[in-house]
Amino acid sequence: MNIAQQIADGFSVTGTVLLMTLGLAITFGVMKIINLAHGELIMVGAYTTYVINTQLHLPFVVAVISAFVVTALIGALMEMLVIRRLYGRPMETLLATFGISIVLQQMVRLVFGATNQPIESPISGTLEIGGIVIPYLRLFIIVFALALLGITALILYKTKFGMLVRTVSQNRQMSECLGINTTRIDLLTFAWGAGLTGVAGAVLAPLRNVAPTMGVDYMIDSFMTIVLGGVGSLAGTIAGSFIMGEASQLLTYFGGETGAKIIVFLIVIVLIRFKPEGLIKMESR
Fold it and tell me: Chief location of this protein (predicted)?
């Protein structure tokens, strides 16, 4: 029964990984931007939730919407002021977004201090099925992550905006020749990805105390998931999230948290060695 409990907990971790990876699936997977400020955008979303929910005492849904708006605006500013001048220059983009991550961390420290801030869980209680106990908050995260994934896939593959995003990401020069405003598409796409990242921070905030450095672990796991599943593939993002979630939970049960992290890293390294394009390769024309 303990193994069944760990597998069930692994599904909840999978939902967590999927949620924190969706925004990066847009900015890194689709736009090919190595955004080292991804974790800090999650952190900004969490602090937005702290202000709206804990300080202003507004409903949690308002905090989630506010987190999307705030991080989307920050993403738009990042794209307009920095990233727009660095397309096609991955090393410069990496360094620039790393600098932005440090700036965001220090700004949060100046405003909120360096101490951790708790956020009350919006959903309490547990569900017990056959001796397996699952917190309602974890179930909410799984359902919310799947719903957000469905909305993202719908926008990306069933709307005109999504078609333009995929067109620009595959061939920017041809898109410009066809009269597509690539500058506007880049801005909206990066803001969209940043907004999704902020929503992840809002929903994940009740799981742990909010702190200026909370985004570091999220960033590492997000990049590992994207690379493992396949850059640019939403199906790959799902597969990578499942492997990362279940492997982390089961290996932690058998070998402890530190051993689990080492083995997960080794699994990712081996898989990338034999499948450098990831588990699910993005088809291109």
Answer: membrane
Per DSSP, helices labelled H in the chain are 2-24, 38-49, 60-81, 90-112, 136-158, 160-170, 172-177, 182-204, 215-229, 234-274
What's the pLDDT tens digit per position in 81-135?
999 998 888 889 999 999 999 999 999 999 999 889 888 888 989 988 888 888 9
Q: Are 50 and 205 within 8 A, CB to CB?
A: yes
In whole angstroms, give the CA distance from residue 114 to residue 110.
8
What is the rounded (10 degree) CA torsion for 106, 210, 31, 193? -120
Which tokens sit at 27? 């900015």
| Global confidence as pTM | 0.93
| Residue of 189, 215, 228 lying closest to 84 (CA atoms) | 189
Rg of the chain (C-alpha set): 19
Distance from first CA to last CA of the chain, Å, rounded? 48
Q: Is the dihedral of CA 62, 10, 132, 119 positive or negative?
A: negative
Q: Pick from 32, 18, 29: which is nearest to 199 by CA?
A: 18
